[in-house]
């Protein structure tokens, strides 16, 4: 079973994450940051990864630690659930349109974390959410998940649409990458023999 449960406790946050890579996109995400919960719901729904997140953070400061530490825990859970990565497709990609916005994602579950981020979110906030935290989340997620992650905004002017298209594009690419390759379900997808 490709499942994982991670608990992370610091002086700044308390986070638990449970995921099932072979789910149907069932989600229950409660971080105390409304817009972020909405984005995590999209990540789960469109990747078909079942996801439960509980987070409590130092909101009296801001949402930074909560968002970043959730990215760390989710990345760790993904790496744990993938195990030795035998049989996965490994690579995923998606061009995702949402109204005025289009975002392209390409990723590799390589165990070599690297983030290429070409997103220009025009407003500093969406509601009360600091839009600079989107990059912080994906930096933490890619680093701790061992993901080479490229996210490119092709166009768009509405901040909500751009960010949501980004989360959905990553989700769809992730769905493709974690799926079992029916032609090579018994092999690790690397000439090295390990990922």
What report would you give on this structure?
The chain is α+β, with helices and mostly antiparallel strands and 195 residues long. The chain is 34% helix and 31% strand. It has four helices and ten strands. The strands form three sheets. It has a four-stranded mixed β-sheet with strand order 1-2-4-3, covered by helices on one side. A four-stranded mixed β-sheet has the order 5-6-10-7, covered by helices on one side. A two-stranded antiparallel ribbon has the order 8-9. β1 (3-9) and β2 (13-20) form a beta hairpin. α1 (34-47) runs parallel beside α4 (159-178) and α2 packs parallel to α3. The chain starts with a strand and ends in a 17-residue tail after the last helix. 42% of the residues are buried. The mean pLDDT is 98.
Order of helices and strands: EEEHEHEEEEEHEH
Rounded to the nearest angstrom, the radius of gyration is 16 Å
Question: What would the principal axes of the Cα set say about the shape?
Answer: globular
Mean pLDDT: 98
- Main sheet characteristics: 4 strands, mixed
Give the percentage of residues in beta strands: 25-35%
What is the share of helical residues? 25-40%
The count of helical stretches stands at 4
Strand tally is 10
Low-pLDDT runs of 5+ residues are: none
Structural class: alpha+beta
Side by side, the strands of the main sheet go 1-2-4-3
Q: Ends: how far apart?
A: 19 Å
């Amino acid at each position: 079973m490709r499942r994982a449960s991670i608990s992370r406790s610091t002086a700044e946050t308390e986070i638990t994450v449970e995921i099932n890579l072979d789910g149907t996109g069932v989600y229950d995400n409660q971080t105390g940051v409304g817009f972020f919960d909405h984005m995590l719901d999209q990540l789960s729904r469109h990747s078909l990864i079942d996801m439960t997140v509980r987070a409590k953070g130092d909101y009296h400061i801001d949402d930074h630690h909560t968002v970043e530490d959730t990215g760390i825990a989710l990345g760790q859970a993904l790496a744990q659930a993938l195990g030795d990565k035998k049989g996965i497709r490994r690579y995923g990609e998606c061009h995702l349109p949402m109204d005025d916005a289009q975002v392209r994602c390409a990723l590799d579950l390589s165990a070599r974390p690297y983030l290429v981020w070409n997103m220009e979110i025009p407003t500093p906030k969406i509601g009360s959410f600091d839009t600079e935290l989107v990059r912080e989340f994906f930096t933490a997620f890619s680093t701790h998940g061992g993901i080479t992650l490229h996210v490119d905004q092709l166009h768009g002017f509405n901040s909500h649409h751009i960010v949501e298209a980004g989360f959905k594009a990553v989700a769809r690419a992730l769905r493709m990458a974690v799926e079992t390759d029916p032609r090579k379900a018994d092999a690790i997808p690397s000439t090295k023999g390990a990922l």
